Amino acid sequence: MVNLNPEQEARSITLHKRAFVVEGHSDYLAEATRLRNQGETEVLEKHHLPSLLEGGVNMEVLTVGCDEPVMDITNTPLKVVKVLDDVHHELQVSDKFQLITCYEDINRANNAGKIGLLLALEGARPIQEDLFLLRTYYRLGLRQVGLTWNQRNLVADGCGEGKGGGGLSNFGTRLIEEMNRLNIILDLSHVHERSFMDAIEVTRSPPVASHSNSRTVCDFPRNLSDNQIQAIADRDGTVGMCFFGSFVTKDTPTLDALIDHVDYIVNLVGIDHVALGPDYIDYIMDLMQAEEERMQERGVDYGPLKYVQGLETVSTLGNITRALVAREYDDKDIEKILGGNLLRIYKEVLK
Ligand SMILES: [Zn+2]
């Protein structure tokens, strides 16, 4: 763990409270829909609000669908519409969260002391080959689209396709153009390097890689090469630090090892391009472990699912601020990493 002197401890606590903290990638909604299908309601408030508040989170990027059939909930248009309907009901029965559809919503949510929810797709498979589906999801609140999960779809190739991976399809180009027109954020995590670079050429908006680390620091297929990180930075985007051990190091995933990724990216492209994309699934770890074998057949071996020590749940998020303080980042730079950099993108894109 991180050792701080009393003055640094006090500074970390104040800073983390003051900062606008964005959890840049999470799957709470698949779990919410699973529990709602069993008859529960107010799942976000009952199951997640306490730990989100403890972690000092101000805004969440939540997936409403994925290329993968996570818990058999996420990968078809019908299932995505069900998750979206569930979110809207969750928002109706709880006044602790607010849907974010434009930048002003972020200020409104913050002023009302609510946690903002930005809705995202993790892979474009639920869009099939029909832009009307993208527009329909948009009208229901979708504001971010990742092009792929680890495999190939009709839009692009995922990083799990390895040497056989190719570039963006013609439909992929049309999809990004429509996303630009609608002001939907482009997410390039999971995308194969060739498709990634094609997408960077096409988009007119700053992209995010919502949950990926540095492949130079830790050679893992889901991490980004220096060229990819540079390309994101050149388009004024961000790379969100993922807290899964396999993304961080081949050894024990310590906080120090995670901050090595932050240091590396900051040295490569500057402080304005690092964000947080923890990808917490600790609350469904047993269910995800049951899916581990299926996931390993899909091109990327995630190894044992465990988190960076000290960052095991969202309630412990304050420890990343402590670790950045220990690494002598100043307050302004830590605030950028915790959420300020993503706010810059939201201001630019979510018009
Ligand atoms: Zn992912």
Protein model, in words:
There is one protein chain. With 351 residues, the protein is α/β, with parallel strands linked by helices. It is 46% helix and 12% strand. It is built from 15 helices and nine strands. The strands form two sheets. Strands 1, 2, 3, 4, 5 and 6 form a six-stranded parallel sheet that branches. Strands 7-8-9 form a three-stranded parallel sheet. Helix 2 crosses helix 4 and helix 6 runs parallel beside helix 7. The chain is globular and about 55 Å long. Zinc ion (ZN) binds next to loops.
Summarize this structure briefly.
With 351 residues, the protein is α/β, with parallel strands linked by helices. The chain has 15 helices and 9 strands.
Main traits of this protein?
3-stranded parallel beta sheet, 9 strands, globular, single chain, binds zinc ion, 351 residues, alpha/beta, 15 helices, 46% helix
Number of strands: 9
Distance between the first and last residues' Cα = 41 Å
Ligand set: zinc ion
Question: Fraction of residues in helices?
Answer: 40-55%
Elements, N to C (H/E): HEHHEHEHEHEHEHEHEHHEHHHH
Q: β content, as a range?
A: 5-15%
The count of helical stretches stands at 15
Q: Which oligomeric state applies? A: single chain
Q: What's the Cα radius of gyration? A: 19 Å
List low-confidence stretches.
none
**Average pLDDT figure:** 95
How does the major sheet shape up?
6 strands, parallel
Broad structural category: alpha/beta
Shape: globular
Annotate the secondary structure layout.
Elements: H1 6-18, E1 22-26, H2 28-37, H3 43-54, E2 59-66, H4 77-93, E3 97-99, H5 103-111, E4 115-122, H6 131-139, E5 142-146, H7 170-182, E6 185-187, H8 193-202, E7 208-209, H9 226-234, E8 238-241, H10 245-248, H11 255-269, E9 274-276, H12 285-290, H13 292-296, H14 318-326, H15 331-349
Parallel strand pairs: 1-2, 2-4, 3-4, 4-5, 5-6, 7-8, 8-9
Helix pairs in contact: 1-14, 2-4, 6-7
